[in-house]
Fold:
Amino acid sequence: MSIPIILLILVLIYDIGNALYEKNRLSNTSYLSIEYALDNINNIDENDIIKYIMNDNNNLSKISVIIKDNTIDIELEKEIKGIFSKNVNLDITTVKTKYRGKIKNNKKNIERIK
Structure:
């Protein structure tokens, strides 16, 4: 195998790993934001949650926060450019997370929405 092919494979592996890392990071941000919002459900609005999210992630292409009837929906989206895709001017992927949290029987219920 030649060196350029090995380098290409390594770069693609790095790009895929980076995309998975960013998806996990967005999932954690969504989960923690909903948990924070449910703890303060009577004293918080959508703008407060957006500010909370922006403190952790500022390169998001979409932030959607909806609070309705003690239910909180958060959808985050981020475009990921890897090393390979930067060189060929191509977006490798868009990472999306969508979570819903609600208080039911005085217990927090947080779930990922597909």
